[in-house]
């Protein structure tokens, strides 16, 4: 077995994407090279043999140090390809030798590293809409009914930055996302129109009161980022949109609507109103620095 960390300029991105798109059913768009290139320039990879098994190692800086970790808007990585126990153990051994790791994966791949188990909600779109709607909680049904009285409608938007502005207007004061994070995401969105849709909810006057960016691949739709403008929240546009989207995309065997992260209690409570199923993803933290830097870094990463 030949295993190595491959620098970005030596990664065979054509082969990478061909295998990823064909075999990755849980996080293909996150692990595609266009997404990684935009969100984590210079990302590296663990590769076994001739891409028999491989995984991305995105990187960022923390306190001036290199950290192998997921950038904002990239929820979960995957180990792609063979995935045998022997290969997973080999990948784990390589990752254990890195100085600082804070990586989230879509499955519990490693046997010797205790992960932080995180929640993610999803809706299986195989069912017809009436079956999905039966799972809505009572307060969700009431909100959807109320939203339907305001003359709202959904349209596709060409300008995805409308969603960024809506997000900033609604959550900018409390969000950890910075302008640079949105710029990186925009770099992907500007050049990969086939991998996402941007929707807007318009009121009776044609004003965009809410918008959302939905990433997509062959198996999943990902509720990536949305923006509900505060002065229009009384119209309940988020409920209107979610019900519209599920209605439009129901009855698709093998397709999932991924709420894309549900660790924040208030956010999880909202998602649960649609009667979703629960799955997990896994964050692995390794810190191979020595005291006192080890302790300082531990405090920085403890809750993230």
Which key phrases capture this entry?
304 residues; alpha+beta; Aminopeptidase; 2 domains; ten-stranded mixed beta sheet; four-stranded antiparallel beta sheet; 14 strands
What does this structure look like?
The chain has 304 residues and is an alpha+beta fold. The protein folds into 2 domains: 137 residues, Aminopeptidase (3-Layer(aba) Sandwich), CATH 3.40.630; 129 residues, Aminopeptidase, CATH 3.40.630.30. It has 10 helices and 14 strands. The strands form 2 sheets. It has a 10-stranded mixed β-sheet, sandwiched between helices. It has a 4-stranded antiparallel β-sheet with strand order 1-2-3-6. Helix 5 packs across helix 8. The model has no long low-confidence stretch (mean pLDDT 94).
Question: What is the compact description of this entry?
Answer:
This protein has 304 residues and is α+β, with helices and mostly antiparallel strands. Helix content is 33%, strand content 28%. The protein has helices spanning 13-23, 33-39, 85-96, 129-134, 138-147, 161-171, 179-191, 237-249, 265-272, 293-301; strands at residues 3-6, 44-48, 53-57, 59-62, 65-69, 79-81, 100-105, 116-124, 153-156, 196-202, 208-216, 220-228, 256-258, 277-287.
Topology, element by element:
Blueprint: E1 3-6, H1 13-23, H2 33-39, E2 44-48, E3 53-57, E4 59-62, E5 65-69, E6 79-81, H3 85-96, E7 100-105, E8 116-124, H4 129-134, H5 138-147, E9 153-156, H6 161-171, H7 179-191, E10 196-202, E11 208-216, E12 220-228, H8 237-249, E13 256-258, H9 265-272, E14 277-287, H10 293-301
């Amino acid at each position: 077995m030949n295993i190595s960390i491959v620098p970005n300029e030596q990664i065979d991105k054509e082969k990478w994407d061909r295998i990823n798109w064909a075999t990755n059913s849980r996080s293909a768009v996150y692990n595609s090279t266009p997404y990684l290139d935009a969100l984590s320039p210079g990302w590296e990879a663990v590769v076994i043999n001739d891409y028999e098994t491989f995984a991305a190692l995105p990187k960022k800086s923390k306190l001036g140090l290199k950290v192998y970790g997921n950038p904002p808007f990239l929820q979960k990585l995957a180990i792609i390809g063979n995935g045998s126990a022997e290969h997973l153990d080999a990948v784990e051994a390589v990752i254990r030798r890195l100085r600082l790791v804070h990586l989230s994966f879509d499955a519990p791949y490693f046997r010797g590293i205790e992960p932080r188990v995180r929640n993610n909600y999803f809706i299986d779109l195989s069912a017809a809409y009436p079956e999905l709607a039966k799972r809505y909680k009572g307060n969700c049904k009431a909100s959807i009914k109320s939203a339907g009285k305001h003359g709202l409608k959904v349209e596709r938007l060409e300008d995805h930055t409308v969603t960024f502005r809506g997000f900033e207007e609604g959550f900018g004061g409390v969000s950890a996302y910075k302008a640079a994070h949105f710029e990186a995401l925009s770099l992907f969105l500007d050049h990969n129109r086939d991998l996402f849709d941007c929707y807007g909810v318009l009121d009776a006057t044609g004003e965009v009161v809410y918008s959302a960016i939905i990433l997509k691949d062959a198996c999943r739709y990902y509720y990536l980022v949305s923006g509900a403008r505060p002065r229009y929240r009384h119209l309940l546009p988020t409920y209107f949109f979610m019900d519209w989207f599920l209605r439009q995309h129901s009855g698709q065997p093998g397709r999932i609507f991924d709420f894309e992260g549900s660790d924040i209690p208030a956010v999880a409570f909202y998602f649960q109103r649609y009667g979703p199923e629960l799955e997990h993803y896994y964050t692995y933290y390794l810190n191979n620095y020595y005291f006192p830097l080890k302790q300082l870094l531990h405090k920085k990463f403890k809750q993230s």
